[in-house]
Amino acid sequence: MSYSLTENHIPGRKITFEGAEYLWLGGTNYLNIGSHPIFQGALSKGIKQFSQNFGSSRRNNLQFSIWDEFERALAAYFQVEAAALCSSGLAAAQIAIQYAQQKGLSLNLAPQAHPALWRHPYNPFAGSYSEWISTHQKGQILASDGIGSPWITSFDFSFASKMDSTNFLIVDESHRAGIQDIKISCSGHLLQTVSLSKAFGIPAGVILGSTADIEEIKKDSFWVGSSPPNPAFCYAGLHSMQAYEELSRKSKSLADRFAANLQGFETAITYEAGYPAFCSKAPGLFEHLKTAGILVNHFAYPDITAPPVCRAILPAYLSLDDIDKITAAILSYA
């Protein structure tokens, strides 16, 4: 069953659907930062200070220091040299790909690569991830997700430490950043792109990389001509780093409890230990969870003609008792 519901507010721990109340495990709001009092207070102050979105260019005569301050904070948070804010995660990925292609390199897209990384006429590799790694050669841009989504798969980036120094590795970290360690050892040029709308609750994106690459990106017309993110939300993000760290730890504790509860059991779901989400193509699992009072996502993505995937996250507002209820429902699925 693929379903649709319309809300006039962002759901919390519970949601009402078809007249009944369910534990809500949908969407990608991993940390539920919007309900944290630190973030709420910072966003309120940001809106008062900046009042609205500001249509501009990062090369405009009028600049806001909040953009540079937030970039430095994000670079420190992710332990990279530099960062370049963008209007969205998709814009961040496309700007990074565009920049690397100007070096005369060909694009080599990994299996399951998110459409944010696609560039016509290149398509994701049709084989396995290990087969894709074996195809890489000098003169290429290797582009991959940090973790599979909607189908959850972890990827081994150990090959990056032996890459040719002229190659680029571009990794879309939108579904790991803020909830898992994204550090990658890379002997080439590493650019990591992030949609901050997921774990960070901000309508923006960011490119993470070396100082040299980020400085070049900030001179590129593709970045210069793109819109900067909303300064009020950047203010909220800058002043919520403590809350992000707190909720990231909470998210890890929930993911650890989830994996511990399922350890040693064969289940109808796919998940990665330490990652707060699971997915499944098992027929009937969506309805089974719904019967247990749990509502998850169930729709085709990114190919809307494909069969729907049952996918759920473990939001940071859940309790350990909620995790026990979820895993009990999964284990009871025949």
Widest beta sheet: strand line-up: 3-8-7-6-5-4
Quickly count the domains.
2
Average pLDDT: 93
Order of helices and strands: EEHHEHEHEEEEHHHHEHEEEH
- First-last Cα distance: 18 Å
Q: State the major sheet.
A: 6 strands, mixed
The CATH homologous superfamily of the largest domain: Type I PLP-dependent aspartate aminotransferase-like (Major domain)
CATH fold-level label of the largest domain? Aspartate Aminotransferase, domain 2
Unreliably modeled segments: none
CATH architecture tag of the largest domain: 3-Layer(aba) Sandwich
Number of discrete helical segments: 10
Radius of gyration: 20 Å
What's the count of strands? 12
Structural class: alpha/beta
CATH C-level of the largest domain: Alpha Beta
Share of residues in helices: 25-40%
**Beta-strand percent range:** 15-25%
Note the overall shape: globular
Condensed summary:
This protein has helices at residues 37-50, 65-78, 89-101, 129-135, 211-217, 221-224, 231-238, 241-262, 285-291, 320-331, and strands at residues 14-17, 20-24, 82-86, 106-109, 140-145, 168-172, 189-195, 205-209, 277-280, 294-295, 297-299, 309-313. It has 334 residues and is α/β, with parallel strands linked by helices. It has 2 domains: 14-34 and 242-331, Aspartate Aminotransferase, domain 1 (Alpha-Beta Complex), CATH 3.90.1150; 38-239, Aspartate Aminotransferase, domain 2 (3-Layer(aba) Sandwich), CATH 3.40.640.10.
